[in-house]
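Changelog note: in this version the structure field was regenerated for every chain. One regenerated record is shown below for reference.
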Amino acid sequence: MFIKRILLLTALIIGNSVFGQFENSLAFEKSDTVLFNFQRPSLLANKNGFATNEYTEQFISLKQKDTTDFTTPDKKSFFETDAAQIGFVPLVFFGASAATWGSRKEIRELRNRYIPTFENKYDDYIQYAPAAAVYTLKLAGVKGRNNIGRTTISYATSAAIMAILVNSIKHTAKVERPDNSTNNSFPSGHTSNAFMNAAFLDKEYGFVNPAYSIAGYSAGTFTALGRNLNNRHWISDVLAGMGIGILSTELGYFIVDRFYKNDGDHEHVPYKKDPLSKPSFLSLKVGSANSISNLVDNFGIGVKSKAGLEIGLEGAYYFSHNWGIGAEFSVASFPISTEDIFQYDDDLGSFNASIVTQSMGVMNVMLGPNYTAFLSDHWLLQAKLNAGVAIGASGKVSLALTEVDEDDNVVENELELLSYKPKNAFKTTAGIAITRMVTKRIGLSGYFDYTYSKPDFIYTEIMYDDSDPDDPNPSSSIETNDFSYWAIGAKVIAFF
């Protein structure tokens, strides 16, 4: 009995060892069979050796036909998970919306100073252009990701998700619009719809040609810009809308694909295997802008400029693996601090006086060479050297007077003390960015830019005659002001 147990145990050990070796042998090539024969001659080889055995070819054939995969699958990185693929880019837009919340009034003020009377309803129509393009291409016979039936189901699912998110937040947040019309400003429904449609076009035809994706997201961006220019939304509203639109399409397709148990009716291999072979891109950036010196030192009244906000669009066309030509459109706003000169004098009795200023603003349009270095499969180093024009926003400095009259009514008056108008000036920007690829086409960047500009300012000082305060005497002068600043922030970048 004891011997039988020993033999049984020995047989089990040998059998387990043989199975383990056989499992490992599945990865052997034909040149490895001699080693295999040497290790297990008693099982698989006759007196002539395994390498010359008549069953060798049969074994190799069986090994090649075997479909069992005993290897451990590679673990997905965070950015390769479904959650990251669906939610990471929208999360960046939500973060940008939060970052601009405190500066939304200053950015809106820039709009009022550049184009206060702008009114055009193009954004009511262009938001639908990407979706219309999808169905036009379908009807024209251009094969996309899905047949028209499944495309419609995916689109309807995305639209339902978007409508639920937008309307539930609008009626919960109750943010007043910048034109004071209603209390449903946040988030922008037009922008949400536009970016949902842009992502829809990208899903269906982005793999066919990157021009479809570029056109779709350009339409979405112009819709968002139109909502700001028409004074219907704050900047934070449209940024949140961008995120909601993309998220809705991603979720819609994710749900429908799980229902159909595949990723599309047709094979959708990208138009090129590596979108970074010539890394042309479009990006949206948001950052903190910090002036090199006090931008309002020339005012001579003791006020100081504070750190502001920079937001912009960038793009580049690459004609090689490393070099391209890029362009940039951006705006920057710098609030003015007047806390140190707030005045209250008991001798004034019922009067309070304070200095009121408008933020210093500039709009930049530039272009220049771009360079990209590939640090690894996921990390890129990008650099740029742009030149162009800086268009400054005019503004004014006023003395706000608050008085309580005999009937205890508060009376507010404002006397203009100084106005300024920057002349258009030459501007250069040098910048560097570190980009982490989130997907094969989407990256997240941290950037640092240094911008140099010294425009001439036309200052007009208003002098009031004590005998007749309603008859001011303006006096103008021209001075050069250093408008250089550095900015640090983040970009969402899409490669095509």
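Spot check on this record: The chain has three domains: 2-65, 81-271, 281-344+360-395+420-496. Confidence is low (pLDDT under 50) at residues 1-52, 342-350.
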